[in-house]
Amino acid sequence: MEAFKTHTGIVAPLDRANIDTDAIIPKQFLKRIKRSGYGQFLFYDWRFDKNEHENPDFLLNREPYRNATVLLTRDNFGCGSSREHAPWAIDDFGFRAVIAPSFADIFYNNCFKNGILPIQLPAEDVQQLFEKASVPGYQLTVNLEKNFIADGQGYEKDFEVDDYRRNMLLNGLDEISATIQYDAEITDFEKNHKIHYSL
Amino acid sequence: MGKTLYEKIWDRHVVVQQQAQPDIIYIDLHLIHEVTSPQAFDGLRLANRKVRRPDRTLATMDHSIPTTDRHLPFEDKIAEQQVEALRQNCKDFGIELFDLFSARQGIVHIIAPELGLTQPGQTIVCGDSHTATHGAFGTLAFGIGTSEVEHVLATQTLKQYKSKTMAINFNGKLPIGVTAKDLILALIGKYGHDFATGYVLEYRGEAIRDLTMEERMTVCNMSIEIGARAGLIAPDATTFDYLKGKEYVPQGQEWEAVLEDWQLLQSDEDADFDRAVEFDCSEIEPQVTWGTNPGLVVGINSKVPGPSEVAEEKRQMIESALAYMDLEPGTAITDIAVNTVFIGSCTNGRIQDLREAAKVVAGYRVASGIRALVVPGSQSVKQQAEEEGLAEIFMDAGFEWREAGCSMCLGMNPDIAKPGDRVASTSNRNFEGRQGRDSKSHLVSPSMAAAAAIKGHFVDVRNWPIKVGEGV
Ligand code: SF4
Predict the structure, then answer these.
(1) Residues of A in contact with B316 (CB under 8 A)
(2) B459 and B359 within one domain
(3) B124-154: per-residue pLDDT in tens?
(4) In testing the pocket of ligand 1, which one of B129, B130, B181 has its CB within 8 Å of the most ligand atoms?
(5) What does the CA dihedral B193, B432, B369, B75 come to, rounded to 10 degrees?
(6) What is the domain range of residue B300?
(7) Domain of residue B18, CATH code
(8) The pairing of beta strand B422-425 with beta strand B340-343
(9) What's the rounded Cα separation, in Å, for the pair A139 and A14?
């Protein structure tokens, strides 16, 4: 997994609450058996009309947002299905960080496994960022080493993130390798743990 | 101080506990399906890893498969590839697969309980957010992403932080003619669909104790729709009666032993929940969602609300939901006409659901111009429904009778609602485009969906003239 230390990029303000994973990536694209190439389908029903033409009004179809790398959005982002295709699509489109007042559980967790930093900020701060990001091309630096975001024009704000997850992202660690080091403990546990059937 | 049921199950599964890190917890049963697993197997191959416990892993196909003819080639080539990939992966890694023509095939959350694989006190995970269904047995069950699927395949464990706990106390009895689906929709409607983010719920109270296992599964199934990680119901006599004699459940002396153990799986009297909610059941009506998330729901005798009736910060959401759903505020729910009816899914695709729908349907015909589908949750549900004559009731009335699968719950297979279609659906999500681009979903119980199919619009099924037993 790609490590995340610090990143600067254009902010795309997607002003909508409760964006669910069906909206992030509709189901017809979940049949692919690979992990890459989902960026073209991100927010598909909003980005494209029924004839597969780009919808010119949609934020990510406009300059400079095609090159945005920080997604700013509202409450409960990523609710619904557990599909990891959602962070895959966000990542593949080019986003490295998502800022919102709240995230759905599974999605939040999935982000860290894919090198995306979800940043939870109080609603007032998110509102303030929406105002700033109404200027096209507004950029933010996301610094995970020191846990702050800044716009280089005087705005700076700390954010909180759990140390364990932070460390995983900073170092691009693979959780499976880490767990496998406890193989002996798992084997011991299995000796005493009762399950009433095997398949 | 006492422990909650959640804490008891958790403690039984902690393998490694470390400061400032999530615990490593053991997973007793890992369910996999064709959509969220291929990339996990790819990851294993890349790293040269094996599946640690194929004997704790079960695969089936449900999401993208056709519910009509399943002989290859599929109409949908990409779905076919996905099915082939699962076959190959199960073969390569030694995992049991209930394949398309198996009598045990079905929606993953339907087949595990019906075989007795879901047992109290276990941990169960699946790359699917409705895994919470299994919580009805006092089982800690939750959905995971594909990276975690790979983690479980490789290690039979997960790294997890403990969630906060919330008691949902349902007080009073459910009124007659009101179902488990209405109960959970009413709860989500009252508190909103992200209310329980970060929590594991325990559903308690008289109304829950009165429910059958199938109804309890309907309640737990929708835990994710209120934002929760999982939902639990403590096992009791209803649970044990349901499990007794099921294929994977111990028999004889061993049964007595497990029963003793399972009876311990209760929250202690003095257990402390992080939060508790009291919910009065006596006023619940049959529920119909009108918006684009499951929390936008009202009783059948209500009207579609308007933006002015809600708090300021909700207005935008309500307006966009009304626009998508093409509904005017003030419209009576009973005046909403549908052209598609879907009965099925892991929420309401079990035999009791089909029985309740068939009771309404018997002796009637589907209204003209309506496309109505019944998709049993598993092959075993299908077979039982055929033996009981339910299939015939549905087909005589003009419903399509299908093979088991997820079908129009998410429209990944050819069962897709068309743009503009308005669907009465027994599934669990009414998000924009969920059942098909630009289609409009209204979530209801099976009997409400059946009545809508007959009348062509929503009606209060409590007043339905049942014709069963009148010589029909
Ligand atoms: S029936 Fe619907 S909710 Fe249930 S597993 Fe299938 S797609 Fe998911």
Answers:
(1) 17
(2) yes
(3) 999 999 999 999 999 999 999 999 999 999 9
(4) B130
(5) -120
(6) 296-463
(7) 3.30.499.10
(8) parallel
(9) 15
Together in a domain, B217 and B251:
yes
Q: How many CB atoms lie within 10 A of CB B91?
A: 10
pLDDT, tens digit (0-9, with 9 covering 90-100), for B212-258: 999 999 999 999 999 999 999 999 999 999 999 999 999 999 999 99
SS3 A186: helix
Q: Do both B219 and B313 map to the same domain?
A: no
Q: Which of B100, B128, B160 is the last residue of a domain?
A: B160
Indicate left, alpha or beta for A80 from its phi (over 0: left) and psi (-120 to 50: alpha). left
Place of tokens 């835990």: B223
Based on the fold, state whether residues B320 and B337 are members of the same structural domain: yes
CA distance A73 to A24: 12
CA dihedral B66, B412, B448, B174 (to 10 degrees): 110
Q: Rounded to two decimals, what is the model's pTM?
A: 0.95
Residues in CB range of B414: below 8 A, 6 or more apart:
B66, B68, B75, B76
Starting at the earlier edge strand, list the strands of the sheet with B157-160: B14-16, B23-26, B157-160
Whether B90 has a binding-site annotation, put simply, is no
What SS3 class is residue B203? strand
In a shared domain, residues B65 and B83: yes
Q: CB burial class (10 A; 0-12, 13-18, 19+) of residue B27? A: buried
Cα B410 to middle of ligand 1, angstroms: 7
Under an 8 A CB cutoff, do B197 and A102 touch?
A: yes
* Structural domains counted in chain B: 3
Q: B201: domain CATH number? A: 3.40.1060.10
Enumerate domains of chain A plus CATH numbers.
Answer: 6-173 (3.20.19.10)
